[in-house]
Model the fold of this input.
Amino acid sequence: MLQQQISFLQQQLREANRKADALLKEVASLRNLLERKSEEEAKQKRVIKGLAKISQNKSEKQPSAPASQEAVPGQPSEKKERAHTNNGAKRKQHLEVEVVEENVDPEDPRFNKDLARLYKTRDVIRYELIPMRFIKKIYHVRTYTQNDEYFSGKAPDAPFLNSQYDGSFIAGMAQLRYMYAMPVERIVKLFNDNGFDMDKGTAHGLLRKTERLFENLYHVLGDAIKEDTYIAGDETYHRVLVDTKNKNGKGIKKAYVWVVTAVNTGLVYYFYHDGSRREDIILDYIKGYRGAFQSDGFSPYRKMAKWLLRLACFQHVKRKLLDCGDDFDTKVIVRLANYIYHQDHKHIIGVDGWTERDHYKWRQQYALPVMRIIRKKLERMAADKSLLPKTEKYDAVHYMLNEWDGLMNIFTRGDYHLDNNLVERLNRYISLSRRNSLFFGSHTGARRAAMFYSLACSCRLQGVNFFKYISDIINKAAAMPPRTPLSKYRDLLPDRWKQKNIAQE
Done:
């Protein structure tokens, strides 16, 4: 009798424990839900804050107002707040990654879960990395007969005829090669190390086929750039292997890649003409354009001032002035230029209702008086008989005087940039490739790279994932008939592709 009562009480205890566990789990679930919601709200706030910082487009860190007697009257003297260090910073939540949850119970042999009641739960986080995954999909395409008629399934189309490689595979290669500057040899080695046997010839062949597939898309991109009313341009060098050997017995040539950026549209176009830096290459491309073009003082760009509004670059001017070292006069002009940057970055178009018209009026207020002071100093220095030709100071003074009209044109609108740093930052992709790959294998390879870099950097300006973009459009481009109008390809460029995908979401 007593044993039955004990069993009954134990059963009631277990039932009570189960109910308590259920309630605790429900409370824990609600708590986790609230925590996730709080984390999501925090993430949104961080994203908004990050976008605000990006929109400022700060091309350089601005020093506090100089204490020199040459400081411009009215220049603010308030000190900037010291930047926060990592001490005491919160750990990143990484809300974007896949989450796997697992309950961890005690392993003590004395522990009996049926008799125990949950006391508390402590979350411990470990981030795991799964190496590159390759998936071999086998589609068993079945054919049936029905009423003397055959019905056959259809496997997904591949970008290339008789090819087993999906668009995502090619997109991954392009991302590694042109976004992360990995030579093809290293990509093949990476694939082999992760269990996918591939040779260099196959990798190059896939990139070659993709270039031919994107030929119309690339052509449309070059035209789309000139639809913008504000373009920035530059050129940078790379090395390329050629058949003709130089004086050192090496078949390597210093070749140039041209780049133009549609500032408002956010598209980038690199192009390559056998590595030449001839002025007719850029002049032929820009012929007929009537908008604003921003660049450094390279002579072909200066010639554009005959038929378009040319904008110069304050950073190029400053670099030449800084090359003069401790020269007092040039240091004064540098401080005045820094003052212009400081004032210009006080307001951001689109933030707190600040418009392009507001910024134009602001520039007329702060910039024009400072530019008049700079002009007088430059003319005084140029007239100084002690200023010898072929000196750094002489070159800096006359460079700025030659660029004067282009510098003043910046202040004719509120949305023109003070410098050409946007393009120069994009050219770092070419510089990184130059350091990692050393050279292009041929002129053909250089032209292929120009096409891929155009799409990659356009995706970067648009905030588009390059891998997802290529994975999608490569199949769409492959499905287009040979005589498809070029206007259809315009919708595949990153700006419109982004708009379409946002609308679908």
Residues 54-81 have pLDDT under 50 and may be disordered.
